[in-house]
Predict the 3D structure of the following.
Amino acid sequence: MQPKCKCCNSELEKNEIALNKKLIESDLKEFLCLDCLADELCCDVQDLLIKIEEFKDSGCKLFS
Ligand SMILES: [Zn+2]
């Protein structure tokens, strides 16, 4: 089953879910899409995309 954003119900990609876990809580059950996550954290979607790249570069296995 494809996880969906708990705010706007849009479908989530693996990296979006991984970022939720990294930035909020590792055993999180409900996730936010990048738009809603950016709102929640008061930052830009672009900042989150950069974060994803950083986690990928650091070799984190949650990201692909
Ligand atoms: Zn959303």
In short: The two ends are 19 Å apart (CA to CA). Helices lie at 14-23, 34-41, 45-57. The mean pLDDT is 95.
